[in-house]
Amino acid sequence: MSIIKHKDKRTGITYVYESESYWDKEKQQPRSKRKLIGKLDEETGEVVPTDGRGKKRTDKKKPISDDTALCDELKQQIKEKDLLIDQLTSQNKALDKELAAVLKEIGSILCRYEERR
């Protein structure tokens, strides 16, 4: 295995890859596989790890915030939003029933009107 540095001319970012060579039996020639390790920090010369797509790696197990008060406040806001959604859903159902009744009445009025003609 070897380390390959490749500079993107468009962005000026230098990407660091791990390259592994292997023999391709079908084509009878050597090939290589590359795996992105990270970006090269131009100032320090260190490799900044990425998630494999050129983005900075984030620790997904780490909580967004350690502040429990903020977490409790967000949980309360979510509960309030859920309650509001439930209320609006029940109002929507009631309005749908009312609309159906009005449309039925309009239909019966139109039928009576057509009979008189």
Protein model, in words:
With 117 residues, the protein is α+β, with helices and mostly antiparallel strands. It has 2 domains: 2-49, no CATH class; 63-117. 42% of the residues lie in helices and 27% in strands. It is built from 1 helix and 4 strands; from the N terminus they run E-E-E-E-H. Strands 1-2-3-4 form a 4-stranded antiparallel beta sheet, with no helix packed on it. A hairpin with a 4-residue loop joins strand 2 (14-24) and strand 3 (29-40). The longest helix is centred in the last third of the chain and has 49 residues, at 68-116. The chain starts with a strand and ends with a helix. The model has no long low-confidence stretch (mean pLDDT 87).
Give unreliable regions as ranges.
Answer: none
Measured between the Cα atoms of the first and last residue, the distance is: 92 Å
Tell me the domain tally: 2
Q: Please indicate the percent range of residues in DSSP E strands (runs of 2 or more).
A: 25-35%
| Radius of gyration based on Cα positions | 32 Å
**Mean pLDDT figure:** 87
- Please state how the strands of the largest beta sheet are arranged side by side: 1-2-3-4
Quickly give the structural class: alpha+beta
What would the principal axes of the Cα set say about the shape? elongated
Order of helices and strands: EEEEH
**Helicity range:** 40-55%
Characterize the main sheet: 4 strands, antiparallel
Helical element count? 1
